[in-house]
Amino acid sequence: MSLRCVCLTSALALTAGQAAAEMNFNRIASFPVVKNMAEGADTTRETSPEIIAATADGMTLVYTDSPLGMIGMVDITDPANPAPLGAMDVGGEPTSVGIVGTTAFVGVNTSESYTVPSGKLISVDIAGKVETGACDLGGQPDSVAIAPDGNFVSVAIENERDEDLNDGVLPQLPAGTLALVPLKDGALDCAGMKMASLTGLADVAPTDPEPEFVDINSLGETVVTLQENNHIAVVDKDGKVISHFSAGSVDLDGIDATDERGALVFTESQPGRLREPDAVKWVDENHFAPPTKATTRAVRVAGRSSTRTAP
């Protein structure tokens, strides 16, 4: 990023009239994350609040700050005046965060290189800003999601590629995987962790799946995107792949497809552009929506099939 400081922005949905009136999102405040730095710290350091989670009462935010190797906390009891609650070093690069009660669960990348990836899932007491548990994930984590019933955490172990090696062409081992980590009385149960293999599913680099993002529905099923593999999989709570399919492609017209030109010229096209799904979110027990690089669509998992329907 070119900016050394990025502001964490709060948004609140405000009703413009009666209950039936249209809902609008309006920015009501910004929070410069340097406010969470210790007194006397170098405030010119690069910061980047990325993934944000909120406590169940909606009064506290926890965000990841990868460049600083920290997570930060913000009090939004008064949303128009967010207040700093401090930050905590997590011993690596935080990649994602989820919250159960007063505990944050954070994926932390500790890799020494692309070929020797490593990472951990830690639990943090939000109020005390202290680590209360940690599980070795055996690879580089990306997205973290917590089951609606609070019984387990899903972690996408991406083991990401080196984009400077062979122009980033896959495969680049080791392969990624999906970790399912049980929670017992709100605490990490590392001994019960399951690893769900995602190799051999995709048409693109099947030996090197790179899980990107996860979400869990009320049935305990985890949907996971494999962005670089242009694939999506659904995994049950026991770690079994119950559905998977290609994200497909789309013909794009009237777009700007030239990088670093200094102007936007919408006269180009990309036939057969792979969708490359990034984030994903369950809409209900049978549908999820994966925003993609090429387009956005809804996917229906009827009978755990791969029937797809346009939104």
UniProtKB/TrEMBL annotation:
The keyword Signal applies. Keywords: Signal. Gene3D superfamilies: YVTN repeat-like/Quinoprotein amine dehydrogenase. Residues 1-21 form the signal peptide. This is Phytase-like domain-containing protein. It comes from Ruegeria atlantica. The lineage of its organism: Bacteria, Pseudomonadati, Pseudomonadota, Alphaproteobacteria, Rhodobacterales.
